[in-house]
Amino acid sequence: MSSSAQLSIAIVETDRERALLIEQSLRDAGEFTIHLVSDITGLARRIQALNPDVVLIDLESPSRDTLEELALASGPMERPVAMFVDRSGDGLTDAAIEAGVSAYVVDGLKPQRVKPVLDAAIARFRMFQRMRTELAETKRALEERKVIDRAKGMLMKARGVGEDEAYALLRKAAMDQGKRVADVAQALVTAAGLLG
Amino acid sequence: MKTTTLSVGFIPLTDSAPLILAQEMGYAAEEGIALDLKRAPSWSSLRDMLSFGRVDAAHMLSPLPVAAALGLGGAGVALSAVSVLSVNGNVIGVSNALAEKLRAQGHDFGFEDARAAGAALIAASDETLRIGVPFPFSMHAELLYYWLSALGLSVPDALQVRTVPPPLMADAIEAGEIDAFCVGEPWGSMAVENGVGALLLPGTAIWSFAPEKVLAVRSDWAETEQSLLGRLIRATWRAGRWLAEPDSRSLASEILSRPDYLGVPAEVLDRALTGRMVISAQGEERQVPRMLEFHSGAATFPWRSQAEWIGRQLAARAGLDPDAAARAARATFRSDLHRAALAGTSADLPGASSKLEGSLSTRMPVASESGKLFLGPDRFFDGRIFEPRET
Questions:
Q1: Fewest CB atoms within 10 Å of the CB: B29, B88, B120, B236?
Q2: Closest-CA residue to B239 (of B37, B3, B4)
Q3: Closest residue, chain B, to A73 (C-alpha)
Q4: CATH code (residue A17)
């Protein structure tokens, strides 16, 4: 573990594309030695062998728990390899958790040396988070569209009305009940399913 | 009463039931709180979510607040265990290959004798046994170390304990990364269900009253939010009492099986709740008393002596001063807050906050507020008795 040489950083990420994006943002932030770890079997031992100053891992990754083994040194009285990021109270850890990244930093590393790494990682993970939210939102909208179309189809058939009128019926029911059109449509589809 | 929303983190396990049912069955609402339940991807992230205030309270492995107090992992934020959410509930399972070998050696998979099962397991492994546990600081790890070292295995050297998140345990055994596991339900039963392993022993055969999960909060939050904390403790205590009723179990399984909670078939969840365990793909059944306990025998009471036992075990492995560790550990199990929250309810709590661990082999009446409290058996399989040394 070096004190003046470049910081070495291990990025644990199974998705190659994401790993490269994280690596790129770190390279833009400074000169670091970067290891990409994409295979998570035997993760703790891999990290132990690399002996990095900082480990970055997606907060959502269940493999993160494996890294906790490193908090217990391999033998009694040995110094743990890595400890959870800074106890310096500058709010960086909190920001990291909010952005969805956990960072393990070797004990005793000066906060100012870690800050650029974390700032870059946090910015990158915030972007991932936005992409994830957008994707989920798009998916949801598509699903809702499908349900509304099915409900419209049912109304058209059952009441012998046109598409616009069917939609107007749904919208009116939604307004009357203080609900969203998609919810009313879902209720109709579910009820119809139950009635057979 | 104005409803206050508390965010509460949980890991998808059958023993998260008291939190989920407190919300679903209206026990939270009765106390004027609503629980915003957040499923966490891993124990370390749940601990950090709690430490940094992303959640107000969490379902947590009983050794985790103790480990944090000893500086083992975590962000240095003090955590308090204010209730025990569940006692027992773990199972030890083996790969199909190892199960076959055990049977060939004549082991009967009786599912109750820890000494016989452990000796058979040690005899059947030619190489270093690789065992998966969900987290380094967990009752699973403690039970394994206690069990196998009492049977003469030199731990941790003669054992490779690997961390595998519970929902991935079945995959790990199928992929041949581990030979055996100790995991909370329903993930042991899921390994059986997927045909990748067999169950060897319930955790309760090693320690018949092991505090498994606790309700954890930040220690400073416990001081500043005493009213909310009391309501949360009462709501989960009532949910635990409801869960202990035989009639509640099928509804509980149905609710827990929902995709937002565990996303596992109700039939599989039912096994730990009823203690009717299916131990092999051939459908062999074993009835396990106290497989998973939510209520009886003052199960929710956080005994200082339980914390001390955990603290001393952790200290011995991590090379820490045992007496200092015991003191720090005891301070994390808040029997005082638990008692204060349940004062004035029908809960019958013990008069003492510490007890001998492992001394009861049958139900035993003890001094309590109403004088009607019985503690259940709490024996270790090897008959050792742990005497807390704190003065």
A1: B29
A2: B37
A3: B318
A4: 3.40.190
